[in-house]
Write a structure and sequence with these properties.
The complex is a heterotrimer of chains A (162), B (903) and C (437).
Chain A (H helix, E strand, L loop, with lengths): L2 H6 L3 H12 L8 H12 L4 H11 L3 H8 L13 E6 L2 H5 L2 H12 L12 E6 L11 E3 L2 E3 L7 H6 L3
Helix pairs in contact in A: 2-3, 3-4, 4-5
Chain B lengths: L1 E5 L2 E5 L5 H7 L23 E5 L8 E4 L10 E3 L3 H15 L16 H9 L22 E3 L9 H9 L6 E3 L6 E3 L14 H4 L5 E3 H5 L12 E2 L8 E7 L2 E7 L12 H5 L13 E3 L7 E3 L1 H11 L5 E4 L6 H11 L4 E2 L4 H16 L15 E5 L3 H4 L1 H10 L2 H9 L7 H8 L5 E6 L11 E4 L2 H15 L8 H11 L3 E6 L5 H16 L5 E5 L5 H7 L5 H10 L4 E5 L9 H14 L2 E5 L4 H4 L3 E4 L8 E4 L4 E5 L12 H11 L10 H8 L25 E2 L30 E2 L46 E2 L24 E6 L13 H6 L4 E4 L1 H6 L7 E4 L4 E7 L7 E5 L11 E2 L1 E4 L5 H7 L1
Parallel strand pairs in B: 1-5, 15-16, 15-22, 17-18, 17-20, 18-19, 20-21, 22-23, 23-24, 27-28, 30-34, 31-33
Antiparallel strand pairs in B: 1-2, 3-4, 3-5, 6-9, 7-8, 10-11, 11-12, 13-14, 13-24, 25-26, 26-29, 30-35, 31-34, 32-33, 32-36
Helix pairs in contact in B: 2-3, 8-22, 9-22, 9-23, 10-17, 10-18, 13-14, 15-16, 15-17, 19-20
Chain C lengths: L7 H6 L5 H6 L4 H9 L2 H10 L12 H6 L9 E6 L8 H8 L1 H15 L3 E6 L4 H16 L15 E6 L9 H8 L23 E5 H21 L7 E7 L6 E6 L4 H8 L9 E5 L19 H6 L8 E6 L4 H15 L5 H18 L5 H15 L8 H15 L1 H10 L20
Parallel strand pairs in C: 1-2, 1-4, 2-3, 5-8
Antiparallel strand pairs in C: 5-6, 7-8
The chains are: A alpha+beta (162), B alpha/beta (903), C alpha/beta (437).
The structure holds flavin mononucleotide, iron/sulfur cluster and FE2/S2 (inorganic) cluster (FES).
Iron/sulfur cluster binds next to helix 14 and helix 16 of chain C.
């Protein structure tokens, strides 16, 4: 009885996008990761409610889906800010001064990695090599790469994201 | 077979089996965690590392995981090589980084696989200086405790719960060194097999909650081989006792019945033994007065008085042993004895025996059904009526996956490989039941029908097997699948209360036999000794017995371990007991208070299964002995002893037996029961070295002091005159009989993992053979009998009632076990939406059955056929009338939750 | 034609190669040729003869791998491994962002060769630009009849889709990748079964790296001999080499296979930045063993690098200069590997965090001689192939073992001096690593 209400959690746009992925795949649960990423794209993160709704849509248990969701770095099971600032902490960026860059960003935003600014504008996350080592040290804000980044660039680069 | 060498020992192992299993089958000590005999290998823990040498010249070799290495002719390995031993010690060291040092307060302490492997691997000194991770634990309901900090991430829990048992709500979350095993949120673990986590987890993450609440160390538990009284599967169990309290139930391995697993009714349902409403005193009362306690001798005198008087009816019970029933039958005479089933159920149970004997199909052992490659379930909600079977049926559908894997040359123990390759391919299971069941998710075809239509459908399948009838129909497809299967299985039973359904199952099986295949046919009965009581016989039907009392044809009744209100029309029971109370005596011998004991004139407290010994006959006709785990406090005594003494006191020549073995011997002279003699060792059996088998462990602590708070003198150890077991730690485990072992415990192996030391080979029979003996085998070489559909007419007003069984609540005794009470649901009436509408009732409203003078909450389920009502069997609804009955909405009904809320 | 089959179009176009440009410059000729006039066996044979070796890290001969696909009816899959999460590696992104059609064409040929009718690009989640480029290219290829029901008008049908990863290094491991593709947790799988026999959804599957597949069109067009002749030494073809670290011009260059390390660093990357001296390098990504000064004249090819005790890996090198503390760099690397462990097997899951902890203790001056022994001990037991379930942990230990060998004096100095000689003050290298999950 509560089933339709649960699915209602998802928007038609989300359901449509998920169904497109399902169409490429041999069975519905195979679209689990795609579906999580789609819903996250619309909402910034995957809440328990969204998770349960996606699980129903794909015909799997919430526990099974959460097992998958909690495995992956890019699926957020906690709310994030309007912009996600990912700072590469892997080796090339490390060699090029990535740690001091991170320090600078922390100071600038006044938060620790994993936290969100009080105004809900930024979430700061360390991340693994962004595949842009020729531009080290790099960061990625939402889906935009920035680098090589001097500490003095931090304010300008982040300021561009409202 | 292949010859392999391990540290210089040459032995034969099965070609292609994994090395770990091969070593364990040789009873070698090789540590492991993630491997499990029923779950196969995944290679996660890396604890089973050994060195493999390429050839004779190779001296260095390379490290391999034994559980992932197939045995090949001529292969050479070392368990002891420093490289392997050092690596295994490292694995422990890694696992111990985060493992708490809470062994003193851990329920697993002393029987912990992790402790054992730690000691065996030789890691002793802590060198990791980092902080330990800590986790928040979850409330997983009344059965299972959760202590995540103890987790060593072996993945056994989810592999059992999710992959093996099909549970959907326990999973592995997170990754790297932050793995969490639990639910998405606090809540009751849904699987009916969750309790196995307690034994599957190699450490103390998942614990037996009722046991934790009244905890003892393993070494302080007394035990004896026993049989689960929960249902007719007859799983072998190992109850643990201390200070006269039953503490917990562990699985007792049986290679043909229950393997390594139990259901939660079995594991948590035995606490009725300690329940507050246990009957512990003899009592008498006059009229409507309260019961007055009387001495045992006085009660015995009443019983003696009734012995053989002729003016008495004896009503036995399918939850009592064959021997107890037999003793009563002797006492009152066969013609005055009734086995205690409802009259309808007696017919159904006799039908099982008839069908089995007729040779309609081979009767499989419970575990054998795991080999079936096509299954037809007719009418039986197996998960609720014979729960352990459902776990086996769930394995049977994996045969298609195994077949595919075999084709791809993937070793079948390579669990992840098989699952990945086969992508969950299932063999066909066809399920025709009244309502959705816990097997629907793995069924190829599901239909929800009332019993009479299931029967019709079944007969149509039988006809299709015989080549009559349309092939495109569902029946045709099912018939074709069963016919082409190598090992087809038909499962049915007494659960839905309709013999025609079982006859249809027999018809399908018979037709398959005619068509040249060798079908297995398993029919489930409802109670632990349903078949035993049936085979024992007895001249009287229950309704007839009650009528005799009501009419005054007999004045006295002895009721043994039976609540008659669950077996016959309550108004008839009332009338019968009232008449008998007026004219004579109503003597009830039971272990627990029931509505029937409340209507007795005399009460005699009898021993519960763990307090006595006896024989139960399971649904395949296997007679199995359960032994006394501990002595009940007087006057609680075994029923057969009460009855025997009364017989002797009455000077009955035919009841001169004093000992259990003589009861068995006498009982075995009845036709069809000859094999009873060979069921299990008698009292004069002695184990290794001619010694008794100890109930207590060799480590039972503080024997001389454990009663010091009461009395500084060491208590005298009671002498057991009835069995080969001693009530002490003296003696010797083992001997020639596999079942005569009170505990599995081997040097270095304190946990139940040690069972491999007592098996012929891993997963095989116990050394000394699988216990129990089939009392009958299906007829061989006779033509398959034919079963035709009998005609019934079913017109009329009102509803046809269909019994619905629940794993938690329907079985009388386990329903009184406190954890089961907490887990179980209330009674329900299940109706189709249209019917509910017609009664003007909505979900949760009360539905009343005037005939039964009872109401229960409505659950609407459109799978229920119109004109039918499903009644959940339990305290509220026991006996159900066969004809159509009127139901109505009960405006005064209050659900139990509402009542609790109001209090 | 130039001798740079992978990047010639990018250079000619001065960056992004759109569909039109791609076709103008001989695009899809090879795929058309393969699908319309060659048998799958011929394609396999050609690639085998060309001695193309996998560019994803292991260097397995591609044509041989394709030959493992059994001739069974039913669905088969080709999967392009575009996960590229090996720290220090950025070559696949370059190819996909700039010349997506080259990959599409390579995949058509590969899929045809193995008889696959479904193909996926398993793409790193952070590669947004690659995603846009690839989906556009796939759309165009579809519209032009290079993909779909009837590839180049033949009866051969091929669907190609992009799967975006949820992000974890282990997804790059080919069996973990298959689990991820199936929408599951990316835990590696047991072998056997090997993916060519039983891979995605239990069907025969070939997994190849982006760069590997991008080599295929040129091999079809110009032949095995030509391709072989491109390499300077043992190995065939060209390789995209990359350099990151304190060099004047970090970047990527397509060069003949076997180009010496020194030439790559000094000529192409412009040499070290002023004031920095090279102390060591990881030749092919974070999971390869350190090489040092004495190895600079080695040819960057599979055999030579292996003989020196390391691996070609992805061919993108990370340089460690003399301002970087080897202990701390090792700690940074182990932080990555411990964090990216899938959590399945014990040595990797529990051993790597301990290794990281030991390195942190040593770096911060708390280390003892026993800790150094423990590092050796752990490295030996975690790192040997076969000790862990997959090669993630093996890869993790490669740079550590070699650092312990080449820079042991630095480790000992930390212990002796109770601190890091590379740091002026007592600073903490510890980092919080909490993600939002
Ligand atoms: C931990 C681990 C990570 C890997 N990551 C990648 C990767 O990101 N990209 C890749 O192409 N191969 C990666 N590989 C190698 C793949 O397993 C596989 O060998 C490769 O994709 C095969 O393609 P190739 O034959 O074309 O090289 C990784 C291997 C391991 C053990
Ligand atoms: S080595 Fe083990 S834990 Fe590490 S990534 Fe591989 S399987 Fe997972
Ligand atoms: S038992 Fe072999 S790896 Fe766990």
């Amino acid at each position: 009885m509560s089933e339709p209400a649960f699915i209602d959690v998802l928007s038609q746009a989300e359901i449509d996008a998920i169904e497109i992925e399902v169409a490429h795949l041999p069975d519905r649960p195979s679209a689990a990761i795609d579906a999580l990423l789609i819903v996250q794209k619309h909402r910034g993160w995957v809440s328990d409610e969204s998770l349960a709704a996606i699980a129903r849509l794909l015909g799997m248990s919430a526990a099974d889906l959460d097992s998958i969701a909690t495995f992956y770095n890019l699926i957020y099971r906690k709310p994030v800010g309007r912009h996600v600032v990912m700072v590469c902490d892997s080796v090339s960026c490390y060699v090029m001064g990535g740690e001091s860059l991170m320090m600078r960003i922390r100071r600038h935003l006044g938060i620790e990695p994993g936290e969100t600014t009080e105004d809900g504008r930024y979430t700061l996350l360390p991340c693994v090599c962004l595949g842009a080592c020729d531009r080290a040290p790099v960061i990625m804000v939402d889906d935009q790469l920035a680098g090589p980044l001097a500490e003095s660039d931090v304010e300008d680069v982040l300021g561009a994201f409202e | 077979m292949a010859r392999i060498e391990v540290d210089g020992i040459v032995f034969e192992a099965r070609e292609g089996e994994n090395l770990l299993q091969a070593c364990l089958s040789q009873h070698l000590d090789l540590p492991y965690f993630c491997w499990h005999p029923s779950l196969g290998s995944v290679g996660a823990c890396r604890q089973c590392a050994v060195i493999q040498y390429d050839d004779e010249e190779d001296e260095r070799g390379r490290l391999v995981m034994a559980c992932m290495t197939p045995v090949q002719e001529g292969a050479r390995f070392s368990v002891d090589a420093p490289g392997a031993a050092g690596f295994r010690a490292s694995v422990i060291e890694w696992l111990m980084e985060n493992h708490p040092h809470d062994c003193p307060v851990c329920e697993e302490g002393g029987e912990c696989h992790l402790q054992d492997m730690t000691v065996m691997s030789g890691h002793t000194t802590r060198r990791f200086h980092g902080r330990k991770k800590t986790w928040r634990n979850q409330d997983l309901g009344p059965f299972i405790g959760h202590e995540m900090n103890r987790c060593i991430t072996c993945y056994r829990c989810t592999r059992f719960y999710h992959d093996y048992a099909g549970g959907k709500d326990l999973q592995a979350f997170g990754s790297r060194s932050r793995m969490y095993f639990g639910r998405t949120a606090d809540g009751v673990l849904e699987s009916e097999f969750a309790g196995n986590l307690v034994e599957v987890c190699p450490t103390g993450v998942f614990t037996d909650k009722p046991f934790s609440q009244s905890y003892s160390r393993k070494w302080d538990l007394g035990s004896a081989p026993s049989i689960c009284p929960g249902c007719a599967v007859g799983c072998n169990i190992s109850p643990g006792e201390r200070f006269g309290r039953l503490k917990r139930i562990h699985n007792r391995y049986h290679g043909e019945v229950n393997g390594y697993f139990l259901c939660d009714r079995g594991r948590f349902g035995s606490h009725f033994v300690n329940a507050e409403n246990r009957l512990r005193r003899c009592g008498v009362r006059v009229g409507d007065e309260e019961f007055q306690e009387i001495e045992g001798l006085e009660a015995l005198a009443v019983l003696t008085d009734l012995a053989g008087g002729g003016n008495v009816v004896g009503i036995g019970s399918p939850r009592a042993s064959i021997e107890d029933n037999f003793a009563l039958m002797q006492l009152v005479g066969e013609d005055q004895f009734c086995a205690g089933f409802s009259s309808d159920e007696a017919v159904l149970n006799e039908l099982i025996v008839d069908i089995y004997r007729s040779g309609a199909g081979r009767v499989p052992t419970p575990l054998e059904i795991e080999n079936s490659d096509a299954v037809l379930v007719l009418g039986e909600d197996v998960l609720n009526s014979a729960p352990r079977l459902a776990l086996s049926l769930r394995q049977s559908v994996r045969n298609e996956s195994l077949r595919l894997a075999e084709g791809a040359r993937i070793p079948l123990w390579q669990d992840a490989g098989v699952r990945g390759h086969a992508q969950g391919a299932l063999s066909e299971l066809f399920s025709l039941t009244v309502l959705p069941t816990g097997l629907d998710d793995i069924a190829a075809h599901v239909e929800h029908l009332p019993p009479e239509q299931i029967a019709r459908h079944g007969h149509a399948i039988a006809q299709a097997v015989a080549g009559v009838g349309a092939e495109e129909s569902a029946s045709g497809r099912i018939a074709a699948a069963l016919k082409s299967a190598k090992r087809p299985l038909i499962v049915s039973g007494t659960g839905c209360g309709d013999g025609e359904v079982m006859r249809a199952a027999a018809a399908v099986s018979s037709a398959l036999r005619h068509a040249g295949s060798d079908p297995a046919l398993l029919l489930t009965a409802l109670e632990v000794n349903s078949l035993g009581a049936t085979l024992l016989g007895g001249g009287l039907g229950l309704d007839e017995a009650l009528k005799r009392l009501k009419n005054g044809a007999a004045d006295n009744v002895i009721v043994l371990e039976n609540d008659l209100y669950r077996r016959a029309d309550p108004s008839l029971v009332d009338a019968a007991l009232e008449a008998s109370r007026r004219n004579g005596r109503v003597l009830v011998a039971d272990l627990i208070e029931t509505r029937t004991t409340a209507n007795a004139t005399h009460l005699i407290p009898v021993a519960a299964y763990a307090e006595t010994l006896g024989t139960f006959v399971n649904l395949e006709g296997r007679a199995q002995r359960f032994y006394q785990v501990f002595e009940p406090r007087a006057p609680v005594t075994s029923a057969w002893q009460w009855l025997g003494e009364a017989g002797r006191a009455a000077g009955r020549n035919d009841m001169r037996w004093q000992h259990f073995d003589t009861v068995v011997e006498t009982c075995a002279s009845r036709p069809g029961l000859e094999a009873l003699r060979e069921v299990a060792p008698g009292a004069d059996y002695r184990g290794a070295g001619g010694l008794r088998i100890p109930r207590e462990t060799h480590r039972a602590s503080g024997r001389t002091a454990r009663n010091a708070h009461i009395d500084v003198h060491e208590r005298k150890t009671p002498v057991d005159t009835e069995s080969p077991f001693s009530f002490s730690m003296e003696g010797a485990q083992g001997g020639a009989v596999g079942s005569a072992r009170s505990a599995v415990w081997a040097p270095g192996w304190n946990s139940n993992q040690s069972v491999f030391k007592f098996q012929d080979e891993v997963g095989g029979a116990l050394i000394g053979g699988s216990s129990g003996i089939r009392l009958f085998e299906p007829a061989h070489g006779v033509p398959a009998p034919s079963y035709a559909m009998s005609q019934t007419s079913d017109e009329g007003e009102g509803f046809r009632l269909i019994p619905l069984h629940r794993i938690f609540g329907s079985d009388e005794l386990s329903a009184m076990s406190p954890p089961v009470v907490e887990r179980g649901g209330a009674a329900e009436v299940v109706l189709n939406r249209a019917d509910a509408g017609r009664l003007g009732a909505r979900e949760g409203d009360g539905i009343r059955c005037d005939l039964l003078s009872a109401s229960a909450a409505l659950r609407v389920d459109d799978a229920m056929a119109v004109g039918h009502a499903g009644l959940v069997v339990g305290e509220t609804f026991g006996w159900l009338p066969r004809g159509r009955v009127v139901l109505s909405r009960d405006p005064d009904f209050r659900s139990s939750q509402e009542l609790i809320a109001r209090e | 034609m130039s001798e740079r089959p992978l990047t010639e179009r990018i250079d000619a176009a001065g960056g992004f190669v759109d569909g039109g440009r791609y076709e103008e410059m001989g695009g899809y000729v090879a795929a058309r040729q393969a699908v319309t006039s060659m048998t799958p066996q011929e394609v396999c044979g050609l690639v085998k003869d060309a001695n193309l070796r996998g560019r994803g890290g292991a260097g397995f001969p591609t044509g041989v791998k394709w030959g493992f696909v059994p001739d069974v009816p039913g669905r088969k899959y080709l999967v392009c491994n575009a996960d590229e999460m090996e720290p220090g590696t950025f070559k696949d992104r370059y190819l996909m962002e700039n010349d997506p059609h080259l990959l599409v064409e390579g995949m058509i040929i590969a899929a045809y060769a193995i008889g696959a009718d479904r193909a996926y690009v398993f793409l790193r989640g952070e590669y947004h630009e690659s995603y846009r480029a690839l989906t556009a290219a796939i759309g165009e290829a579809h519209a032009n009849g290079c993909l779909g029901e009837s590839v180049f008008g033949t009866t051969y049908a091929l669907e190609l889709a992009v799967h975006r990863s949820g992000g974890r290094y282990i997804c790059g491991e080919e069996t973990a990748l298959l689990n991820a593709l199936e929408g599951k947790r990316a835990q590696p799988r047991t072998k056997p079964p090997f993916p060519p026999a039983s891979g995605a959804w239990g069907r025969p599957t070939i997994v190849n790296n982006v760069e590997t597949l991008c080599n295929v069109p040129a091999i079809i067009r110009r032949g095995a001999e030509w391709y072989q002749s491109l390499g300077l030494g043992e190995d065939s073809g060209t390789k995209i080499y990359g350099v990151s670290g304190r060099v004047k011009r970090p970047g990527l260059w397509e060069l003949p296979m076997g180009t010496p390390i020194r030439e790559i660093i000094e000529q192409h990357a412009g040499g070290m930045c002023d004031g920095y001296r090279l102390r060591g390098l990881l030749p092919g990504g974070a999971s390869t063993d350190f090489l040092v000064e004495e190895h600079l004249d080695l040819a960057m090819e599979y055999g030579a690098i292996q003989a020196a005790g390391s691996r070609m890996g992805t061919g993108t090198m990370i340089l460690m200069d003399d301002h970087v503390c080897p202990v701390d760099m090792a700690r940074n690397l182990q932080h990555f590997f411990a964090q990216e462990s899938c959590g399945f097997c014990t040595p990797c899951r529990e051993g790597l965090p301990w290794v990281e902890q030991l390195l942190l203790d040593i770096e911060e001056g708390r280390g003892t001689a026993e800790d150094l022994e423990l590092l050796d001990h752990n490295a030996a037991f975690i790192g040997a192939p076969g000790n862990t379930f997959c090669l993630h942990a093996t890869g993790a230990i490669e740079p550590l073992m070699s650092a312990l060998k080449y820079f042991r004096e630095d480790f000992e100095a930390h212990i002796r001096e109770h601190g890091c000689p590379y740091r002026s003050g007592p600073g903490s290298a510890a980092e919080a690593d909490d993600g939002a999950n």
